Amino acid sequence: MPVSTVEHDLDALTLTITAEFAAPRDRVWQVYADPRQLEKIWGPPEFPATVVDHDLTPGGRVTYFMTGPEGEKFAGYWEIISVDEPSGFRFADGFANEDFTPIESLPVSTNDFSFVEDNGTTVATYVSTYETAEGLQKVLDMGVVEGASSAINQIDDLLAV
């Protein structure tokens, strides 16, 4: 399992996940840069993703929906803040309505994904920062730790292809 640590800090308003992959950084970067690969790992296995828009450039937007086991759809979006290919990127991540407009009542996080290569392996650090402790607690209660960990753990299978 690639996920090595998961920490949340209600005082710092952060959720940090660290994972290690047996692949070079450029290959891990491609998982996020290619929408078809991103679909295979964004969301837990029982909620596969469909990427609708994918503009991984500063000011760009990524929109997607995840489909649950009963066919229910859950939409979300990324607003890309900065990109440092292949070292990482920063984006706002939020919940959306079916037309990809933000759901104002649900929290938005600012995410910093970074990838550091060391002797052919890549350490990925995923840091999500929330505006309030209540927002962080809400996503923790929704199962974000389990969902994000199972999603990240799918990357190994994709990298092996």
UniProtKB/TrEMBL annotation:
It comes from the Bacteria. Residues 22-159 form the Activator of Hsp90 ATPase homologue 1/2-like C-terminal domain. Gene3D superfamilies: 3.30.530.20. InterPro entries: ASHA1/2-like_C (IPR013538), START-like_dom_sf (IPR023393). Pfam families: AHSA1. Belongs to the AHA1 family. This is Activator of Hsp90 ATPase homologue 1/2-like C-terminal domain-containing protein. It comes from Gordonia soli NBRC 108243.
